[in-house]
């Protein structure tokens, strides 16, 4: 599979190959997700939206952290909605978790609904990053937080690890300064960034 096809299938997993990718992401990104959520505190009654929930394992991590709260996951791939729903079946049946087919560009939620929005390995593919960040900000409560966690970003060893992906249409890899600028443009009031360049990981926390 060439790199363009890899990016395409990760951007919107579909069919049997897409389901396989979703299952692989559940396994391979677990350590990244755990590192990312360690940067933020969780109130047990928080309401959280996970944008681009993929195969749903991040949703399950979040659901365990907010036992008295509620977790919504959205994905624009019907196959990922199915996988995430199945993985979180018991929590979905108890209404602790809800998985919805939707796009980040038009979130089906009222203003100020969530205490936190998470985005794991997804904002590379958002259609209009600043406008989509504004839409995320809209559904956050005042003082609510956005957590972005990615395994690729532009940094000092960018040439070695990320350049092939940066050249593919449909995928955008951002630097820490890019995140600062985009989140400021989207109206967020503060931004904190942590990097683990040895792992090629970045976590961004922004406050509405």
UniProtKB/TrEMBL annotation:
One of its GO terms (molecular function) is methyltransferase activity. It is an enzyme of class 2 (transferase). Keywords: Methyltransferase, Transferase. One of its GO terms (biological process) is methylation. InterPro entries: Erg6_SMT_methyltransf, Methyltransf_11, SAM-dependent_MTases_sf. Its EC number is 2.1.-.-. It comes from the Archaea. Residues 49-148 form the Methyltransferase type domain. It holds the Pfam family Methyltransf_11. This is Class I SAM-dependent methyltransferase. It comes from Methanococcoides cohabitans.
């Amino acid at each position: 599979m060439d790199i363009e096809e890899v990016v395409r299938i990760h951007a919107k997993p579909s069919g049997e190959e897409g389901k396989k990718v979703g299952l692989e992401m559940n396994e391979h990104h677990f350590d990244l997700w755990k590192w990312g959520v360690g940067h933020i505190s969780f109130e047990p009654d928080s309401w959280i939206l996970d944008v681009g929930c993929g195969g749903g394992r991040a949703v399950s991590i979040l659901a365990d952290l907010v036992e008295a709260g509620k977790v919504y996951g959205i994905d624009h791939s019907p196959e990922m909605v199915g996988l995430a729903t199945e993985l979180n079946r018991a929590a979905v049946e108890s209404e602790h978790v809800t998985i919805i087919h939707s796009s980040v560009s038009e979130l089906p939620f009222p203003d100020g609904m969530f205490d936190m929005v998470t985005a794991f390995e997804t904002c590379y593919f958002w259609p209009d990053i600043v406008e989509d960040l504004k839409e995320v900000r809209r559904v956050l409560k005042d003082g609510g937080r956005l957590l972005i966690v990615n395994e690729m970003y532009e940094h000092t060893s960018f040439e070695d690890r990320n350049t092939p992906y940066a050249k593919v249409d449909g995928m955008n890899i951002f630097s820490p300064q890019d995140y600062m600028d985009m989140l400021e443009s989207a109206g967020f009031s503060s931004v904190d960034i942590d990097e683990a360049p040895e792992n090629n990981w970045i976590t961004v926390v922004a406050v509405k």
